[in-house]
Amino acid sequence: MVKQHDLPQGRPLVEGLNPEAVIADKAYDAHDFLEFLSQKEILIVIPHKKNRKEKRNCDFFRYKERHLVECCFNKIKHFRRVFSRFDKLATKYLAFLQFVSTLIWLR
Fold this sequence. Notes:
- There is one protein chain.
- A two-stranded parallel sheet has the order 1-2.
- By secondary structure, the chain is mostly helical.
- The chain is 50% helix and 6% strand.
- The radius of gyration is 17 Å and the shape is elongated.
């Protein structure tokens, strides 16, 4: 099995949208992807990799918002039906995600 990284999915995720900023981890620090975001005039909130020759600034105050999303995914994964994806239909899966989100919110 060949392991794939997330970077090839970065461009298709952003192409149909008009976001103000893209907040991502160091894995998305690739010249082509950053150039694509710059051309669309999207604010880049991606820390640079250690081996990058051209260092860039990163707004770490905004980058902290990414942590909130990661924590949300971790809480959702505690529900077995979500992480195992027992539901075959996307509508049922979405409905259960909404239910789980409500349970987390009510805690």
